[in-house]
Design a protein that fits this description.
The chain is an all-alpha fold.
């Protein structure tokens, strides 16, 4: 066992890890990596952090704190597949760490304190509260400043920030008894000390108790974090204690909203919020939380806070530093004005007009910073302006306020808004330099016109008092028809956005006229304009109308897009090919959608599109930066393969020729962001290869490297690699056996089955072996395979695993019969097959009946178990199992939830497609589900026919068993009778 480093050795290594020399850094990091597995290593790190107090040692101390945090991140709750992390932090070390970490955090400088605080949060995410009961009491003792004239602000703020990071999870975790138990535990200890701290801080601020500016800023920071903790503790429900002490908290909130201190306001600062701004944002977030909950104890305070928030909005500057305060304040007013119960606070035309003139219009108007972002930072502008973005902006919140006003005062709001719109458009008509007025007018219309919409499907209901199409024709279409792309680009962007938002309101014929105009805007030199054009085209291509038989069909079919296809791809790829532009995910998504719409019309352009996509792939592979762009790029390749190869499988050879070189480069250079995509596309091409064509030279040479253990070490590869192995088995099992590679594939199965996270992929491979490999090639290994499965069942029996193994058993029996199943298991242990049926299989079917294709597979496998009777009916236990299996089969057949005749879910090309940090499935490369028993059209009828043949083979023996099974289940009896009638058989 490796001995831990001494403190001097560790200090020296950490110092070397900060060296400017790369080789020195790398060598020290490698030594640290080897040393961290030694017992007690983490304790030596903490001792070093505690004892290195000289100023010149701060960088090493900070490096030690980061090293410790990374140890905790990797080793406190290690991944089951990461063997190197299993023993980083033994139990004896953990106890010492938890007993001393809070004390250490309170004694180190702020820059080190933040790292220790993060470490506490990481540990708390798994251990708090049940395995770290002294954490919260230790934190709370540092928050008592009642009798402290000189407050140690670094300690107070460090403790508060740590507590806040621990309690944040209360906002996002799904409601459960365990969650409420944790919240109650925290409330019982913290609610009173937190309230006392809050009131003390407000008093210090109000009375000038924090006299120096630095102390005042620290006090405001503490207040801001206290408000965020209050938010977390109140997020799920209003606790009784806070209800009883509502007056104290609300009184403090009111004082904070009224607080002014000119010394803390930097008039020259335009971007960064000040400390007062940050506190007031946190206060209004709490008010917004309470207003959305409609808590009755909060209602008496609403008039006061409505006035205070209104006054805040009257005084915020247009600068970015006040964006957060403006948006949350507008949201607070929106939450009130949209509810009938608060109608009295706002009714009256004068109030509504003032909201328009003093809140809505000023916050919709383009500011200087908006113009700068539009030109210099288009990604940031798009992020804040796109309706699908989660980022809040003043313009978005102002439009939400308008919609809230329309919910309660639609007629008055529409009338007032129309007056402003007409005035602004008149101003613009008389002086086209007043283009900002037109932009505001369009945004006002967007605000009042929409009654109901969704990000995915657009506007579904509009305000009857607004003529959207007339406004579009007079004021939006004319802007889009202006050929000069340098004229009013921000207004053009807004008009294009208008088209995308109201895509459902346009007819197919209108789309025919709009698409060429939008394609023209793909050539705009302004990134925002051509991005919005691509995004709107993409949305148009997903816009749907009612079709036959209650279906939905796209308004624009491939034939409708065909006349524009050449110009569309030319415009889109002109953006992709422009090396001066950043990767544009909206453009690539539009390419993906256009390829999917065109489908049958791609054969003529497949080569040039593929050349463009592979060129884009080669470019981004050098430095992958935008995961969404990368995802849509591979989706585009996948949809091209699917569309073309479905029509003519011979095209797979062309795809191999084009894609193998860049894919091999990705694999050789270990571009980890792309390898899962590459494996999925390789699997897709292989699956489309013509039947009987085998693997081909390229795929044959690629297989042995895919079976090396190192490639399976990276977790992100496993789902895609498993899929690729299944494709190999389905297309080239004979070659796999010939080249003696089957044992390597079974080795991969054995590695995956050992991990709960990967067990489903192990069964994917095992099912493919059974389905595609010749029986005489794999059956000699079957005993070993079953022993591995049984050992895993014994060691880690979970609901998921039981579902997987019983699905496999059903498939195996369906393929090879009941007797082979029993013979194989009896080699391991006599009677094991019957034991598995009674103790594992039947209970699983009773608790969680299968659906769709697995339901069919289960019925076919269970039918053979029932009807190949000698293997089962050997004793009373077997007879009981036979009856239980019969009941399970009938339950599956009769249950409408089984969807027995709908083997797969409907393909949905409107599903949310995009990057996922864990594993990004390529939607357009998803493997079509194949029915292993396609020759059985109706599993229910096949079952009853087999049962009838069994009864006829031994008259009078099985009928009593059937009757005994069904005597307590009349519905099953009726169901079996109906099945028999449908099949034209009788049970005797």
């Amino acid at each position: 066992m490796t001995a831990p480093l001494s403190a001097p050795q560790l200090q020296s290594l950490l110092s070397q890890s900060l060296s400017a020399d790369a080789s020195t850094r790398k060598a020290s990091e490698q030594t640290l990596l080897q040393a961290q597995s030694a017992p007690g290593h983490a304790l030596v790190v903490l001792r070093l952090i505690s004892e290195l107090t000289l100023p010149d040692a701060t960088p090493v101390r900070q490096a030690a704190a980061v090293h410790f945090k990374n140890l905790v991140k990797k080793g406190w709750e290690p991944d089951e597949d990461d063997k190197s992390a299993q023993n980083l932090l033994p139990p004896s070390d953990r106890s010492i760490i938890k007993n001393n970490l809070v004390e250490l955090m309170c004694t180190v400088p702020p820059q080190i304190q933040s790292q220790i605080g993060e470490s506490i949060s990481l540990i708390a995410s798994t251990d708090f509260p049940s395995q770290w009961e002294n954490l919260l009491p230790n934190l709370i003792t540092r928050l008592d400043i009642t009798n402290s004239p000189d407050v140690h602000w670094d300690v107070v703020n460090g403790v508060l920030l740590t507590a806040n990071s621990i309690f944040k999870r209360f906002r996002y975790v799904q409601r459960s008894d365990a969650l409420y138990a944790d919240i109650l535990y925290v409330l019982n200890l913290l609610q009173e000390p937190l309230t006392k701290l809050f009131l003390n801080l407000v008093t210090r601020l109000e009375s000038g108790g924090a006299q120096q500016q630095a102390s005042t800023v620290s006090c405001l920071q503490a207040l801001r974090t206290t408000c965020r903790i209050f938010y977390s503790l109140n997020y799920q429900d209003l606790p009784e204690y806070f209800e009883d002490h509502m007056a104290e908290w609300m009184g403090g909130f009111a004082k904070l909203l009224e607080y002014k201190n000119d010394a803390l306001v930097d008039a020259d600062e335009e971007m960064v919020p000040g400390p007062i701004d940050n506190v007031q944002v946190a206060v209004v977030q709490n008010l917004n939380l309470y207003s959305n909950k409609d808590e009755e104890p909060f209602l008496p305070f609403l008039p006061t806070f409505t006035s205070l928030v209104w006054n805040l909005l009257m005084n915020v500057t247009p600068f970015a530093k006040h964006d957060a305060l403006a948006t949350i304040s507008i949201r607070f007013l929106s939450s009130l004005i949209g509810k009938l119960m608060h109608r009295a606070l706002f009714e009256g035309e004068g109030t509504l007009r003032e909201i328009f003139s003093r809140i809505v219009i000023p916050n919709l108007t383009i500011r200087e910073i908006d113009e700068e972002r539009f030109e210099d930072d288009p990604q940031e502008f798009i992020l804040s302006d796109m309706e699908a973005s989660d980022t809040e902006s003043r313009r978005k919140c102002s439009q939400e306020l308008l919609r809230a006003m329309c919910r309660q005062f639609e007629q008055q709001t529409t009338a007032i808004c129309s007056q402003h719109v007409n005035q602004m458009l008149t101003q613009f008509a008389s002086d086209q330099n007043q283009w900002k007025m037109k932009d505001v007018a369009i945004h006002l219309m967007l605000g009042i016109s929409i009654r109901a919409e969704s990000t995915q499907f657009g506007v579904s209901q509009v305000n009857d008092g607004v003529n959207i199409m007339e406004f579009f024709t007079r004021h939006v279409l004319t802007e889009l028809q202006e050929p000069n792309m340098n004229v009013r680009p921000m207004v053009k962007a807004t008009c294009i956005k208008f088209v995308g938002i109201f895509r459902n309101q346009f007819t197919k014929e209108q789309f025919g006229a709009l698409v060429p105009l939008l394609i023209a805007h793909l050539y705009s030199p302004y990134v925002v304009v051509h991005t919005y054009a691509a995004a709107s085209i993409e949305k148009i291509l997903t816009s749907k109308v009612d079709g036959p038989n209650s279906t939905k069909i796209t308004k624009l079919a491939g034939s409708d897009l065909k006349p524009f296809l050449g110009n569309l791809f030319t415009g889109l790829f002109s953006i992709v090919d422009n090396a001066e532009l950043n990767e544009n995910e909206y453009v690539m998504k539009c390419i993906m959608r256009a390829l999917n719409t065109a489908k049958d019309d791609l054969l003529d352009i497949v080569q040039i599109v593929l050349e463009k996509l592979t060129a884009a792939l080669a470019l981004v592979a050098k430095n992958p930066k935008n995961p969404q762009y990368n995802h849509y790029l591979f989706e585009s390749i996948a949809v091209l393969i699917r569309s073309v190869s479905t029509k003519d499988a011979a095209y797979t050879s062309a795809f191999e020729q084009f894609l193998f070189p860049p894919f091999q480069h990705v694999l050789q250079m270990e571009v980890v962001e792309f390898t899962p995509y590459v494996f999925q596309v390789l699997a897709q091409i292989l699956e489309f290869r013509p039947e009987g064509s085998g693997l081909g030279q390229a795929y044959t040479s690629l297989l042995p490297p895919l079976l090396t253990p190192t490639i399976w070490e990276r977790k992100g590869n496993i789902p895609a690699l498993s899929r690729l192995l299944v494709a190999y088995l389905s297309k080239g099992s004979a070659e796999i056996v010939q080249h003696k590679l089957l044992l390597g594939i079974l080795g991969v199965f054995q590695k995956l089955i050992a991990s709960k996270a990967n067990e489903s992929y192990a069964f994917d491979i095992l099912r493919a072996v059974v389905l595609f490999v010749p029986q005489d090639a794999f059956m000699p290994q079957m005993k070993d395979i079953l022993q591995i499965l049984m050992m895993r069942l014994q060691q880690g029996k979970t609901t998921k695993y039981v579902g997987l193994i019983t699905h496999f058993f059903a498939l195996f029996i369906g393929m090879f019969g009941s007797q082979v199943f029993h013979d194989q298991l009896n080699q391991i242990q006599p009677g094991l097959g019957l034991m598995i049926i009674n103790q594992v299989w039947v209970p699983r079917l009773q608790a969680a009946p299968p659906t769709r294709l697995e339901a069919k597979t289960q019925i076919i496998g269970l039918t053979k178990l029932l009807c190949e009777a000698p293997a089962l009916l050997v004793n009373a236990n077997g007879t009981q199992a036979w009856s239980q299996i019969l009941a399970c089969v009938l339950n599956i057949i009769m249950s409408p939830d089984s969807h027995l005749n709908a083997l797969t879910l409907e393909e949905n090309d409107d599903a949310e497609i995009g990057y996922d940090a864990t594993f990004s499935v390529l939607h357009f490369a998803i493997r079509p589900v194949k029915d292993p028993f396609a020759d059985v059209e109706d599993a229910g009828l096949a079952f009853v026919k087999s049962l009838s043949q069994l009864c006829a083979s031994q008259p009078g023996q099985f009928t009593p068993l059937i009757q005994q099974c069904l005597q307590t289940e009349p519905k099953m009896s009726i169901g079996l009778e109906r099945l028999s009638q449908n099949a034209g058989v009788t049970l005797i």
